[in-house]
Write a structure and sequence with these properties.
It is built from eight helices and seven strands, in the order βαβαβαβαβαβααβα. It is of the alpha/beta class. The radius of gyration is 17 Å and the shape is globular.
Length: 255
């Protein structure tokens, strides 16, 4: 298999001290098999555990690792946008820092990435989560796919390899978990091919999900409604417009 030109592997980290070292080391090992030009970027999004100390220690030993610290949590969408903004390589891979996906399966995404493909998206072979999360996730998946006309089978699988040249055209705005819907919808509407490959999903071994509580679920549903209006009804992302300035940390400038 021909090596890719260059790859940035990015992990958002929030209280993932128990898993992020393994993620980083496995990424470094996998990337050197896929390309000669690579970097790993981790954004510590206001963690209150030992994530910051562990990441700084790793960065001292591994020069291809870049660590960025946020003093306060910025939200999942904001931290993803910040990671995409600082990526410097031709390809961008990201997954979460909680190790529910095996970063070594990035090689499977690479195998499916051919000329013209904009994104290779993983889909869970089997979801390993508590029963209530599986049920909620099932309902969420089909409701979102139906509402937004998404053609991929697993919009909630944050295990993606993307062309940076395409990613930079999307002008992502979400600051919450709705960024996955915004990302997939805007990527799909470029008209470029999207490919899916099966990947394993594992039980969370450390920490707990930040999403499954009433306030966050309610906020996400309201945000999805707004995004449905903008992306499906108004289709504003398909209208020609001048680019707006976005700070390197992923936040919109104040007005």
């Amino acid at each position: 298999m021909e090596k890719l030109s260059s790859i940035t592997a990015f992990f958002p980290c929030y209280n993932d001290a128990g898993t992020i070292p393994t993620m980083v080391l496995r990424a470094l090992q996998t990337l050197q098999e896929l390309t000669d030009d690579y970097e790993v970027v981790v954004i510590n999004d206001g963690s209150t555990d030992d994530s910051a100390r562990i990441l700084d220690e790793l960065a001292r030993h591994y020069p291809r690792l870049r660590v960025i610290h946020h003093r306060q949590p910025s939200g999942y969408g904001s931290v993803l946008r910040a990671g995409f903004a600082v990526a410097t390589k031709d390809w961008v891979f990201y997954t979460d820092g909680d190790a529910q996906y095996d970063v070594r399966e990035l090689a499977l995404l690479r195998e499916a990435m051919t000329d013209g493909v904009a994104m290779v998206n993983g889909y869970k072979i089997k979801r390993h989560d508590p029963f209530h999360r599986i049920v909620i996730g099932f309902v969420y998946q089909y409701a979102v796919k139906l509402a937004f006309g998404l053609r991929i089978r697993d919009v909630d699988c944050d295990f993606r390899l993307m062309r940076r040249s395409v990613l930079e055209r999307l002008m992502l705005e979400s600051t919450t978990g709705t960024i996955t819907v915004e990302l997939v919808k805007k990527m799909q509407d470029t008209g470029l091919p999207l490919v899916e490959v099966p990947v394993h999903h594992w039980y969370r071994q450390y920490g707990h999900s930040q999403f499954f509580d009433v306030p966050r679920v309610t906020a996400t549903l309201l945000a999805l409604l707004r995004w449905w209006w903008r992306l499906v009804v108004q289709r504003e992302h398909l209208r020609p417009k001048a680019p707006t300035a976005v700070a390197r940390d992923g936040r919109e400038p104040r007005t």
